[in-house]
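Entry 14. Ran structure prediction on the chain below.
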Amino acid sequence: MHPLIKILCFILVLLLISMVNNTMLFFMVLIFFIMLFSFKVQTFLHAVRRMRWLFLSIFMIYAFGTPGELIPNFPVHFAPTFEGLQFGLVQIEKLLIALAALSLLLTSSPREQMMLGLYMLLSPLNLVGLNVERFAARLMLTLDYVEELAAKDNSSFSFKHLDQIDEYIKYLPQTNVVTFQKLPFSLIDKLMMILLLALFVFMIYRGFA
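Output, C-alpha cells:
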C-alpha cells in the first residue's frame, strides 16, 4: 500500500475515535491489538511502558475530577465517581488506539517512504507559500541526527540536544542530498483513495449534521 494511503488511514482512525461510541471504541481496541499481535509490533509495548505514568495520571484526573455518583465505601474522605472512571478508561482507550495505529504506520514502511507520503500530503501547502520540500528535507535530516545520537550516546535524549539539531543540519557537507523516490499508485491504492475520500465526506457531513 502506498505510504500516502497509510497516512490517510491513520488520520481517519484519529477522526473515528472521536466520533464512535464506547462499544465501538472497545472493539477498535481489540482489532488493533489483534493486528499488533499478528504483525509482532514490539515498539507499541515499549511506547506503552514509557507512557504508563501518563495513562495513570489521566485516569486519576478523570476519576477524581469528574462530577457524578461517588463510589461508596471508599477508604478516604474523597472518592472517585463512576462517570469519572468511565471517562478515564475511554480516554486511555483512545490513546491506545492512536498509539497502536502510529506503531503500525511506522513499522509497515521504511522511513523514506513515510517521508514521501508526508511530502505528498503537505504538497498542496505550496500554494500558500510553504516550502514543503525544505520542510520534508529538514525533518528527514533531523531524524537522521536523532538516530545517530541514539547510536553514539547511551544516555537518553534530552531537550539540550534540540539546540544541536540546527547546527548539525547547518554544517552538513553539500554532498548530503535528501531524495525521495516516487512510488506509483496501484489499483488497490486508487480504490482506497476513493473509499477514504467518501468516508471523509461522510464524516464531515455527519459532523455538521
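The mean pLDDT is 80. Will compare against last week's run tomorrow.
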